[in-house]
Amino acid sequence: MEGVFTYFGLISHSHGFLFVTHVLLAAVIALVLAKMAVKSLRLVPTGTQNVMEAYLLGIIAMGRDVIGESNAKKYLPLIATIGIFVFIGNVLGIIPGFESPTGNINMTLTLALIVFIYYNFEGIRKHGVVHYFAHFAGPVKWLAPLMFPIEIVSHISRIISLSFRLFGNIKGDDLFLWVLLMLAPWLVPLPAFLLLTFSAILQAFIFMILTYVYLAGAILLEEESL
Questions:
Q1: Are 101 and 26 in contact (CB under 8 A)?
Q2: Secondary element (H or E) of residue 16
Q3: Helical ranges in 68-137 per DSSP H
């Protein structure tokens, strides 16, 4: 955002530079947290290990009803990585002097494309190209010429839905906090920080659960057709 102070802005005011540095910062924080969690593994977890284990168990529980426990565990690395990366990216914008990389359409669109390509790849890998895309035609053969293009558009729209939902919400949160800090820079914005933190968690959760839903739609074709 133009005119907003950032620490990296002391080096360069280039929007591209600020975006890339905040993306890298979010990635580094995620890697450091992961390293801290496995640095000294204990049977009775404490500290960062305890938090990360609770996080991973929560993701498995979230995906169990959507895609089944075995598949929830299978795709845990993808979902957990996306979740923590998106959450850290969201939270960065709440800290004065930093920007949310998830408030940039380039990052959210990239994440959406990764999910889109991956779940289609998994569907093709499991069912084969013909069977997977035949599912797009629907169960009624004479409606296939109508249903197939509708399904294609529906799947492509998921890219827009995933990317713009996250981008729009985080960008709106950043603008809200920016205006609030200009109007009342001291104690008044404190409740807003709690609200924005909740929003950061919520948006990461939505991105993760939708990824599970799209994966379920791609690999559980038999269950859908029953």
A1: yes
A2: helix 15-39
A3: 69-74, 76-92, 105-127, 129-134
Q: Is the pLDDT at 226 greater than 50, yes or no?
A: no
d(CA 52, CA 61): 14
How confident is the model over 22-53, as pLDDT tens digits? 999 999 999 999 998 888 777 777 788 889 99
d(CA 145, CA 164): 30
Rg of the chain over CA atoms, in angstroms? 20
For residue range 147-164, what is the model confidence (pLDDT) as tens digits?
888 889 999 999 999 999
Residue in this structure with the two tokens 């593994």, named with its chain if needed? 41
Written as six digits, the tokens of 210 are 């939708």
Copy the structure tokens of residue 80.
């957990």
- Among candidates 60, 70, 101, which has minimal Cα distance to 208? 60
Q: Cα dihedral sign for 216, 220, 225, 226?
A: negative
Choose among 86, 109, 70, 67: nearest CA to 214: 67
- Of 56-70, 97-111, 136-150, 190-204, the least confident: 136-150
> What are the C-alpha distances in Å from 86 to residues 45, 96, 113, 130, 159?
25, 18, 14, 34, 16
Residues in Cβ contact with 211 at an 8 Å cutoff, skipping those fewer than 6 apart: 75, 78, 79, 82, 115, 119
Angle between helices 190-219 and 47-67 (to 10 degrees): 50
